[in-house]
Amino acid sequence: MTTAATETAGPAVRVRFLGDFELTVNGTPVRRWRAGKARGLFQYLVLHRGQMLTRDRLYASLWPGTDSTAGSSLKVAAHALRRVLDAHPDHPGDSGIQLVYRDFGYVLNVSALWSDLDRFQELVHTGLRAATAGDTALARTRLRSAIDLYGGEFLRGESADWVVEQREYLRALALRALGVLRTDAEEREDFVELIGLCKRTLEIDRHHEETYRALMAAHGRRGELACVRRWYELCARRLRDELAVAPGQETQRLLRTLIPAAARAAAPRPAGPGSVGGAPATVRALRPAGRQPGTPVWSAEVRSPAPARPVRRARPDNRAPSVLARAADPATA
């Protein structure tokens, strides 16, 4: 998808998809739509502008489960869209928007349009290509601009399948850009920028385990071990409570590397001769202190003989039989 005009050229139509949807035509925001699906139809057509979209495809995306041959919803929405945007197919208004019905489908043409979606994708792809080519400065500039433009998830609040699909694709692009910037900040040892990039990443994906490792490593290099543990615990809690998984082996290994106490706590105890594996902590705590090497854990030789206790004769119980019966039967006590 190409951008018809740049942002600085003052295009007649400006669309923002990232975060809250905004449409501005000739400097005037469009706030009222005449039909419920007119806005959704425009959003979908802008995403595929210049392409002929069949009635079946439009119904499947915007009115799933509805028979396209029997429904009139598309015709109503298209009529409302033309009135809102002055998008007559034969004589479009000053905006240059033209909605044309052709071959059992619709085509949206816009002569001058700026879209944050187009610009974001252009910046990310340019930045990633520059990073691959080794042009670090250009990559940094482009990817920073892309993240600044990423004002939120695609069409925030919408839940149609086509919206979710596009949203996840753009989220992946944003995370890729942040990953390259984070690696660059780590190499330059720019702790302040690194923390900001990690914060931005977790705003997009609060379960991004690689980001938690970057935070742990950064604080570990500064000797801030309490921060290391807190980031690990936050990661573990979110993964456990929200995804029902544990941190990966790489994250756990990093914790043990940065905090030796964590490594000692997690390390298996050496097994004694004659035993299989290490004994549990409760078993180790109960072992007699003077056990000789090679003696089985629960051998009688290591048990201290219990002091002899005098034998006491039982005294006769002179209580009445009824009292004895109640004492023996808890149900009657």
Give the secondary structure arrangement, pairings included.
Layout: E1 13-16, E2 22-25, E3 28-29, H1 38-47, E4 53-54, H2 55-62, H3 73-85, E5 97-102, E6 105-110, E7 113-115, H4 116-133, H5 136-149, H6 161-188, H7 191-204, H8 209-221, H9 225-243, H10 249-258, H11 260-266, H12 281-286, H13 321-328
Parallel strand pairs: 1-7
Antiparallel strand pairs: 1-2, 2-3, 4-6, 5-6
Helix pairs in contact: 1-3, 4-5, 4-6, 5-6, 6-7, 7-8, 8-9, 8-10, 9-10, 10-11
Structure description:
This protein is α+β, with helices and mostly antiparallel strands. It has 13 helices and 7 strands. The protein has a 4-stranded mixed beta sheet. A hairpin with a 5-residue loop joins strand 1 (13-16) and strand 2 (22-25). Helix 7 runs antiparallel to helix 8 and helix 10 (249-258) packs across helix 11 (260-266).
Query: In angstroms, what is the radius of gyration?
Result: 35 Å
Summarize the main sheet: 4 strands, mixed
Separation of the first and last Cα atoms: 86 Å
Class of secondary structure makeup: alpha+beta
Strand content: 5-15%
Give the proportion of residues in helices: 40-55%
Beta strands, count: 7
